[in-house]
Design brief:
Blueprint (H helix, E strand, L loop, with lengths): L1 E4 L9 E6 L4 H7 L18 E6 L2 E7 L6 H15 L6 E5 L6 H13 L19 E5 L5 H23 L7 H15 L2 E5 L1 H6 L3 H7 L7 E7 L7 E6 L1 E5 L18 H16 L4 E11 L11 E2 L7 E2 L7 H16 L3 E6 L3 H7 L4 E5 L2 H14 L3 E3 L4 H4 L9 E2 L8 H10 L8 E5 L5 E2 L8 E2 L4 H11 L1
Parallel strand pairs: 1-6, 2-4, 2-5, 5-6, 9-11, 9-14, 10-11, 13-17, 14-18, 15-16
Antiparallel strand pairs: 3-4, 7-8, 8-11, 12-13, 15-18, 19-20
Length: about 475
């Protein structure tokens, strides 16, 4: 897909797309020199509405944004064009933005438009329509429009990578595949990438991580990516849960297992965010860790009631093998903090059904010991349409994870506070780091959307982390 800014002779044959704010239809038509009167009862620019007409041989599509649209509204509104109305487009399209649209609006629109080309029909005999060579002409009065278009393209590319990593099946996205993905990223952006197999992980004492992968024929991978910028003043560490498929282990899942290819939504967000940070060249030092495993069952699978070790030196009583994500995150967090000492640490994980029970599919559950991070992540999420809401880390919940036989247990086994007790478990492996945040994204990383007939990846976390990083630089 090629973006061309403010062409001298804009296309008069391709579809012309004009986003409009509510109750500004006539003003925007006048601004665009379109001699057309549209009754407000027919189209007023309300959110999620559209109106099309032909004028001088050109098809014009008006997209209603509402009065004060947020980032996600604009993104989704433009995503619908290619996702749902690609039959209207052949070789070129004109995106004609009114003067009232600011940089954030235009960025969201361009990101959304490019996301519209994404389809999950990877293995269909009849392939989805290919928009890779589509010519997109852009008209905007904004300064630095070229830089804005380039930035939007990079954001969309990162989100599409996150989509793919979650949506592709577990025979294609394995721990080894994630390791190869990271190596390729390192080659493209000259990043320092380490991908450890089980033998190397054992030498590094990543015992909890290795226990989870014991039952799988697919060897785990512990992935470390280092992005460094010479002008950076802050160092952030990310950890993403990378369970490429989760059977539940010997505590096998009894329903919904076919959705468990999505249990690496945290890893997808971390990997795609790392790509985006490198692609944009942010003035930030970033260390990203993805413990990638498959939680399967065979004669070597770890057992309920086992006591296993961990990188932090704490012994863990395994109560439930389906509480595996927190085990690999424990080693990821401990290794990151002990070896890299970042200023801030953020982990993302599709961790608990309890987070969905609390917030549904509306937002992530946020846990942090730092008020500044809490405010920053919430504010960034509100701005970008990837919301989170805080839950407490009170020590009384931590006592629920006390074990009689070991230092800590991985599951409290009670029908309450599941997301909170999981967060308290993770906190035990952060070596009392003063600026740590945990995002339980179980309800928002893989969801029903209007863009597919089945649950698909949402790329939750990519836009959120970008907006947060830029707010602290």
């Amino acid at each position: 897909m090629q973006f061309k800014l403010n062409p001298k002779n804009p296309s008069s044959t391709g579809l012309r797309v004009i986003p409009v704010f509510e109750n500004q239809v006539s003003d925007i038509l006048t601004e665009k020199n379109l001699q057309k009167t549209i009754p407000s009862l027919l189209f007023s620019g309300k959110k999620d509405s559209q109106f099309s007409f032909e004028i001088e041989g050109q098809l014009v599509l008006l997209i209603g944004l509402g009065e004060n649209p947020d980032y996600k509204t604009v993104e989704n509104s433009l995503r619908r064009v290619l996702s749902k109305q690609s039959s209207l487009i052949e070789k070129e399209v004109l995106l004609d933005f009114p003067a009232e649209m600011d940089e954030s609006h235009v960025e969201a629109a361009l990101v959304g438009f490019k996301l519209g080309a994404y389809s999950i029909g990877f293995f269909k005999k009849e392939k989805p329509k290919d928009h890779s060579k589509l010519k997109v002409e852009i008209i905007t009065s904004l300064k630095k429009a070229k830089d804005l278009a380039a930035r939007a393209g990079k954001i969309a590319d990162a989100k599409i990578e996150a989509f793919k990593l979650v949506d592709l099946p577990p025979n294609k996205i394995t721990p080894e595949n994630l390791g190869d993905w990271a190596k390729n990223l390192g080659k493209k952006f000259e990043l320092n990438v380490k991908v450890w197999d089980s033998k190397k992980a054992k030498s590094e004492k990543l015992e909890a991580f290795l226990a989870v992968g014991r039952g799988s024929a697919k060897d785990p991978r512990f992935i470390i990516i280092e992005y460094r910028h010479p002008k950076a003043s802050k160092h952030v560490g990310l950890v993403g849960k990378g369970v490429t498929f989760d059977t539940g282990g010997l505590n096998i899942k009894t329903q919904g297992m076919h959705h468990m290819k999505s249990d690496m939504g945290g890893a997808a967000a971390v990997l795609a965010t790392t790509q985006l940070v490198a692609d944009l060249g942010l003035h930030l030092n970033l260390t990203s860790i993805v413990p990638a495993v498959e939680n399967a069952i065979d004669k070597d699978a770890y057992l309920p009631s086992e006591v296993i070790g961990s990188h932090a030196g704490l012994s863990i009583e395994v109560i439930d093998t389906d509480a595996e994500g927190r085990l690999i995150l424990a080693d990821g967090l401990s290794y990151l903090i002990k070896n890299y000492a970042p200023d801030q640490v953020i982990d993302l994980a599709t961790l608990t059904g309890s987070a969905i029970g609390t917030f549904g599919y509306e937002c992530a559950a946020l846990f942090t010991n730092d008020g500044t991070i809490s405010y920053g992540l919430q504010s960034a999420g509100e701005e970008i349409g990837e919301k989170s809401w805080p839950l407490p880390l009170w020590e009384s919940f931590g006592k629920e994870m006390d074990s009689e036989i070991a230092d800590i247990k991985n599951y409290h086994g009670k029908p309450f506070a599941g997301a909170i007790t999981a967060a308290k478990f993770l906190q035990a492996f952060t070596h009392e780091h003063p600026a740590w945040a945990h995002l339980d994204i179980a309800g928002v990383a893989f969801s029903d959307t209007e863009f597919a007939k089945t649950k698909t990846g949402t790329a939750y976390g990519v836009g959120l982390l970008l907006r947060y990083f830029e707010s602290i630089l």
